[in-house]
Amino acid sequence: MLLLGFFLGLAVGIGFWVWQQVQLNRYLRHLLRPLTSHSYKMGLLLIPGLRQEIAMVKQNRQDLQQSLQTYQDLLDFAPVGYLQVDEENQLLWCNQQAQEILYLHWQPEQVRLLLELVRSYELDHLIEQTRDLQKPQTGEWIFHPSCDDAAEMATIKSLALRASSLPLPNGQVGVFLENRQPLLDINQVRDRYFSDLAHELRTPLTSIRLVAETLQTRLEPPLNRWVNRLMQEVDRLINLVQSWLDLTQMEANPNMQLQAKAVELRSLITSVWETLEPLAGRQHLSLSYSGPENLWIKADQARIYQVFLNLLDNSIKYSLPSTSIHVEAKILSTKDNDAASPILEINLIDSGVGFSEADLPHVFERFYRGDKARTHSPQDGNSIGAIVGNGLGLAIVEQIILAHGGSIKAMNHPETGGAWMQLQFCEVMANSLSQDYS
Asked: Coiled-coil intervals in this record (predicted)?
């Protein structure tokens, strides 16, 4: 009975195949019927080749469908979200990660505008910009998901998203989405732990310093040399702890309370240089200044003093002996609502080892020390009292500049080869108005 079923099925299969071939031959003869007898015979000779080409086309189609399915499976498995829209911003496809990130309820058979499904004007603008410029674009923003169910609103949190888009043929755009909120949450927890630790360290460090001060007055050379070394290391730890606390406070409160008043720039820089001159003298370094003689800015004098103290200290540590550190100040004018808005640009240039290209994007990150050439100062082996950086100075500088509404950029100067720090401030004052802010 089993064999009978097998042969019956085989006969049906063979019969179906023969029927397909007969139908294909009949169709081809119908196409070739209007031709002459000679052409007809030639056409009959071409039938096997046509069959082979048709089979090849079918196979290529199957391969393409299989490749498409493979790519979709890969995107579904990817740890980042992906979505694709057509020329009218209608959602064509998105993976599971994108649906979870955007709280998106979408079925493959749905054809709807992306903005109807995801109320994110930042995402919509990024897609339009990508299509208009025909270049890949990136963007970051805080995404606030919408929800129709009031009961679920309390459980839905805003997310920090980063999107990378690329133009596709026929006006389509593909977008990769990255949820950066977990990373930000981890950083906040880390900062809180470090801040708690820094608070706890201040008391024992102060106690150690008091003990060292007591020993310092009771020991004579050469024993007091080791106590002096201990004092310097304790002071370095205290400065590190205080710098961390200051930086954490600045980042937690970007709009810090600034005691803004009129500050004369050149006098401030001169005062900073006088503080650092003993260190500069060891390297036979000099400071030169070019720019307006009477230049006033509205700023927190103590904070701006800290900015130039950190920047000039770095320049001294990494400058080559017997070179000059140059500070250049100039006023730039920009058009803002048809009114001239003066911008103060300050360029601080040294002739040191500069930054490596790999370090430049990270110089303002906390605890980033970068290239060994800039990790170890030329003074390190010459003096116990050399200032050693803690990797927080430039991070603090950036936060202070941002709090003043300014910006800072790190580069390498093309002529000196040294570090080039470019600062910009908007609060520029004329000398005649300086007394109004005193």
From this structure: 47-74
